[in-house]
Specification:
Blueprint: H1 8-12, H2 15-23, H3 26-39, H4 44-68, H5 72-79, H6 82-114, H7 121-166, H8 170-178, H9 187-196, H10 205-212, H11 221-251, H12 262-274, H13 276-313, H14 317-323, H15 329-340, H16 342-346, H17 352-376, H18 391-416
């Protein structure tokens, strides 16, 4: 039986937009700010390409679930060698430690900037981490879904409003979109922009949020494609909006951007350009982006721990589905751990081990995902016709695999170089 949400915000703010918003964090906004400050509007095409890559990856794992009624994590355990389970289990733990610490710190930075330093970044990080965990525990998926709809709306409205008020070069924007250009010294920003749109491990949240919204059956394929098109369209617009703001604030004016103080400098420069509205709109939009990321990770990643627990224990499909509920013990243990893990890291000044681990684990997942989708969604014996990749999907997955493998190697070398 197919179930598809049809009406209202739930059609526009479906699981796809929540996944994409979870992936748009402080690092992605900072990368777009640096790209716009250094190269103006030349790299708009890179944002669109990155959104297209993430659309194809997310659409592939959505098709897998519609065809098999299993999550991709369950598919890996059933159809791939045993070492894959071990790899993903270890990866999940490392990712959780490094990324949860980064998410909480980003929220602390956002609220510190928004309050003009009245709330310190360290205190803000701790409060956001704990309160986020409590909210997910108490509010469940429905409370999380409603809050995400509000936060996404706030983030989009404020950031896009800033971009509209600072936009002044339509010809340059069209060239940046339609004429792929790699400016001298722009390779780093190019890779960051393509790789940053839409998240990494958190794309797996889509499987679990599809279950929560009871999206299943072949008839839902058109819906998930629409859902993901809206999702990655909006995230591309957000990244382009930040490029536009940085272009006006830094590139056009010739003001040098300090990469260590991107957020307060951007807010201050927009205040000088647009008045207090510019500072407030950017500060609220940035804080909203960091909070949606934290809540999306806190709510979505515990499903993966619960799923892995059921797989390791050898439970059947129905038992595993019961475990991947927000009220199950494995889910809540994982949620509590995620809310508490960032606290000790909050008071450290970016220790090398955390930074290096974050760079490494953030680089390894997307190539793995692209490779497994190429393999699993092309095995006709395993999947219904709905899950099989077409030639266009296969071509994009091969490109994504090659690109993100290159980015991953580069990030690992930079982390330990």
């Amino acid at each position: 039986m197919s179930t598809i949400p049809h009406t209202g915000l739930r059609r526009l703010v479906g699981p796809g937009l929540m996944v994409a918003a979870t992936g748009v964090g402080a690092g992605d906004l900072a990368a777009a700010t640096i790209g716009g400050a250094n190269f103006g509007l030349l790299l708009i095409w890179a944002v669109v390409l990155g959104a297209a890559f993430k659309f194809v990856l997310n659409e592939g794992l959505g098709r897998w679930q519609l065809a098999t009624e299993t999550t991709l994590v369950e598919g890996w355990a059933e159809h791939l060698p045993r070492w894959v389970k071990a790899y993903f289990g270890v990866y999940l733990v490392l990712w959780t430690i490094s990324v949860s610490a980064a998410m909480a710190s980003a929220c602390g930075l956002g609220i510190s900037n928004l309050t003009g330093g009245a709330v310190s970044a360290q205190a803000g990080a701790v409060v956001h981490s704990i309160l986020g965990g409590i909210f997910i525990w108490v509010g469940g998926f429905r409370g999380f879904e409603r809050l995400m709809q509000v936060l996404i709306g706030v983030m989009v409205v404020f950031i896009v409003a800033c971009a509209v008020l600072t936009f002044e070069n339509p010809g340059g924007a069209v060239r940046g979109l339609l004429v792929p250009t790699i400016p001298a010294g722009g390779t780093g920003s190019l890779l960051a922009l393509i790789g940053g749109v839409g998240g990494t491990l958190t794309v797996l949240n889509y499987n679990y949020w599809m279950r929560e919204q009871k999206i299943r059956g072949p008839e839902a394929l058109r819906f998930i494609r629409f859902d993901l098109l809206v999702a990655y369209g909006v995230t591309a617009v957000l990244a382009i909006a930040v490029l536009v703001m940085a272009n006006r604030a830094f590139f056009v004016t010739g003001i040098e951007l300090n990469s260590d103080t991107v957020v307060p400098q951007m807010a201050a420069t927009l205040e000088a350009t647009l008045g207090p509205l510019g500072w407030f709109a950017y500060s609220v939009g940035f804080w909203g982006a960091t909070l949606t990321s934290l809540l999306g990770v806190w709510q979505g990643v515990p499903y993966m721990y619960a799923d892995m627990y059921g797989i390791v224990r050898g439970y059947g499909a129905e038992a595993r589905r019961e475990l991947t509920r927000v009220t199950s013990r494995p889910y809540r243990i994982a949620l509590a751990a995620m809310a508490l893990i960032p606290i000790p890291f909050t008071f450290l000044d970016q220790p090398f081990l955390v930074v290096a681990t974050y760079a490494v684990v953030g680089s390894l997942f997307i190539p793995f995902l692209a490779a497994t989708l190429l393999y699993m969604n092309n095995r006709i014996a395993w999947t219904a016709p709905i899950a099989r990749n077409g030639w266009a999907s296969n071509a994009m997955l091969v490109l994504a695999l090659a690109f993100f493998a290159t980015v991953g190697i580069r990030d690992i070398v930079r982390a330990f170089g």
